[in-house]
Specification:
- Helices cover 32% and strands 27% of the residues.
- By secondary structure, the protein is an alpha/beta fold.
- It has one domain: Rossmann fold.
- The longest helix has 17 residues.
- The termini are close together.
- The chain binds guanosine-5'-diphosphate and magnesium ion.
- The site of magnesium ion has 5 residues, from helix 1.
- It is a lipid-anchor.
- It is found in: Endomembrane system.
Length: 174
Amino acid sequence: MARSENNVQAKLVLLGDMGTGKTSLVLRFVKGQFHDHQESTIGAAFFSQTLSLNEGTVKFDIWDTAGQERYHSLAPMYYRGAAAAVVVYDISSMESFVRAKKWVEELHLQGNPAMVMVLAGNKADLEPKRRVDTEEGKLYAEDNGLLFLETSAKTAQNVNELFYEIGKRLARAQ
Ligand code: GDP
Ligand code: MG
């Protein structure tokens, strides 16, 4: 993370099972768009987005996967140097929640100890298909030192909030 005056530049990575909505969350945040049939391998995506906060500006360098999570392994290089990580699961898939916990464990073992970590229960619009209780996600996040939000890239619920919360933490951590 680099800083000058009140300007912070921070690498942010997204982790989580394939299909949980990582790319969709980024595209919602960066472009305000959502696609029902998001291409799963959009390429090794990299986005930059700057937030203006009371605390100063935060420029996120956002790293999205190119689908390597399909093999349940991402090179530690992917999250090396990251100031923030968003671990995403799909509230309609218990399997994706189990996978998310594995990513959290891996980050705790191998990631930067000062990393701001958020657990995002995405697809919150799919309430009728819910398999992971809000309380379950929240408790796990609390017990493991993560922020927690339920989001929807489709309706935009909590998407800006997610990135602003991270930005605020990073700006204050200075
Ligand atoms: P990724 O593999 O984690 O990057 O997931 P994608 O962003 O490619 O999304 C996988 C699929 O889930 C796509 O068909 C998206 O349209 C859909 N999707 C992503 N986010 C949401 C959401 O919040 N709600 C709903 N209903 N569908 C979503
Ligand atoms: Mg993707």
